[in-house]
Amino acid sequence: MAGRIPQSFIDDLLARVNVLDIVEARVKLKRTGKNYSGLCPFHKEKSPSFTVNNEKQFYYCFGCGAGGNSLSFLMEHDRLSFPEAVEELAKLAGVEMPKTEGPVDHQREQRIKDIYSLLEEASEYYQQQLRKHPDKEIAVNYLKNRGLTGQFAARFGIGYAPPGWDNLLKKLARDEATKLRLEQAGMLINKEDSDRYYDRFRERIMFPIRDMRGRVIAFGGRVLGDEKPKYLNSPETDTFHKSRELYGLYEARKYNQKLERLIIVEGYMDVVGLAQYGIGYAVATLGTATTAQHLERLLKMVPEVIFCFDGDEAGRKAAKRALDTTMPVITDGKQARFLFLPEGEDPDSLVRQEGCEAFEQRLNESLPLSDFFFKTLEEGADMSSLDGRARFSNQALPLIDQMQPGILKQMMQEKISELTGLSLEQLISVNNLQETTGTHSAPEPDYYHGESDYSDDGYFDYQPEHNSFQPERKSNKEFVKGGKKARPAPPGGSAVHFNPGSTAISILLHLPALASQCGNLEILANTEDDTEKLLYQLNRYLQENPGVTPGILAVDWQEHDHLKPLIQQLNEIAHQTPIIDANNAQQVLNDCLNRLQERHLDKEILQLKSQPHLSTEDKQRLNTLIMKQAGSRLRKTPEK
Length: 640
Prior knowledge:
Layout: H1 7-16, H2 19-24, E1 30-32, E2 35-38, E3 50-53, E4 58-61, E5 67-68, H3 70-77, H4 82-93, H5 106-132, H6 136-145, H7 150-155, E6 159-161, H8 167-172, H9 176-184, E7 188-190, E8 197-199, E9 204-210, E10 216-223, E11 231-233, H10 249-255, E12 261-265, H11 268-276, E13 282-284, H12 292-301, E14 304-310, H13 313-326, E15 335-341, H14 347-364, E16 367-368, H15 369-379, H16 386-401, H17 407-420, H18 424-430, E17 461-463, E18 468-470, E19 480-481, E20 484-485, H19 500-510, H20 530-544, H21 550-558, H22 566-576, H23 585-610, H24 616-636
Parallel strand pairs: 12-13, 12-14, 14-15
Antiparallel strand pairs: 1-2, 2-3, 3-4, 4-5, 6-9, 7-8, 9-10, 10-11, 15-16, 17-18, 19-20
Helix pairs in contact: 1-4, 3-4, 5-6, 11-14, 16-17, 19-20, 19-23, 23-24
């Protein structure tokens, strides 16, 4: 369906369908009060933070921020375009689609439809050739020698493009218009200065590349001998953009209901070979290095990606490029690892040689991003000399500075301090990075923890073209709060000067049970700091409602006028402040609360000391506060 769908029809359609029916058909939900909750289908989680409000007809996940109505859910979950999602809802509601308003690019719609159809026909043709062509034994023997069975060849739709310049042309090009479509699909090449065409793929093993809906969008062809290029991919077309697509991702998701990690390899046969040996979670890039788009897409699906490279010099260089791409993308709660294979081996050959269990052991022992990062930089630096350590930190700090604010970033900065013997403040000064508010005085509320993904107009921004509530992306590096621009993030982000209030809120949002360990936080009840006020309200609510999920919290607070304005701030913190590892969350939370207490002690002591005359009661109060302050600092002083 193309064109502009009348808004009145969309409004009527949404009134006819029930968001609970739409979601419950795809997600297991449990009734919690007047709402329904379950594990979010848009990100990996162990405890439910996804909530459906049947009364208000919307869903929301406090873990990843996904939210909207029936239409947006179908678009996100079923990966449908806006018109396709409307059409699907119309079928469910039993109503006919209206005629479209406004100009419609019928030619483009028809071209794309034709391309999908021809690519599917081409895939079937290549598979048929692998079974029936007179020269099929050459291709079949190649696949057998690579250890591939017929079952897995069929699973991945592997086929054979036989020798000859016009096999596909003769089979599919019924007329001149079809020839043009096959060229637009990347399957034919038009000979220069003529109207003659010939097949792009000849005498190659053919691997269909599928999108997330399983549609064939392109092909990769692998030579049977030593000719160049070894792999030939379809060109960029209306259906295929190689910087965004990954070979094997559709198959990995289809045959693995609960993906926990994905391996990024270099060849199509590596993907298929690993799958045949029980490792069905490998994907391959399509003639390009791994891009940030690839990683962002994968890390939304799984908590861990593993880069798999040859152990030679070329593999090391490729790994370094992958590291540089991953650094700005990785966030707390996600992990990237690097596996280097023995020289001369690839994943396909190695898994055949040593088996699934041994290969998975290699995966489990692969280098975490931080280890690979420091190992790579230390190899080129003389860490025994001052000059070497200075050069090392000069290389490392700017790279770490690109990372998302979080515990991993903080720990990597602390590792540099450990290796160089310099404090973070000294390193920042030595490397001429922008200096920020020191830890000696209480910092102003730190509203910015990295580039904001959410507007501050409200809970979500309503986008009529999607007929749903969606987060609004911001590309600028400043976040506006209360009509005033907050200061930009410091070098190192919140990892160096993080806001303890925001961090504590983030921990409680993701681990609500820890609220029982926080006490009443009365010290924050009358603060002027908005973040600390929010922490007080959140802690109080979680203690009064044990076992509540963050999704239910969002719905409950919508119904209270004094709490409703705070939801936007919670939403910002949930996405801008990193998720804390559950293993050390209690420790970090305690540290945050201690810092907040120290801040208020310092502030109250300063206020009392600034008064010209103190009453006896104020003097006693001042002595008590000073004793508390001294005790707190004594507990933090490391033993010598």
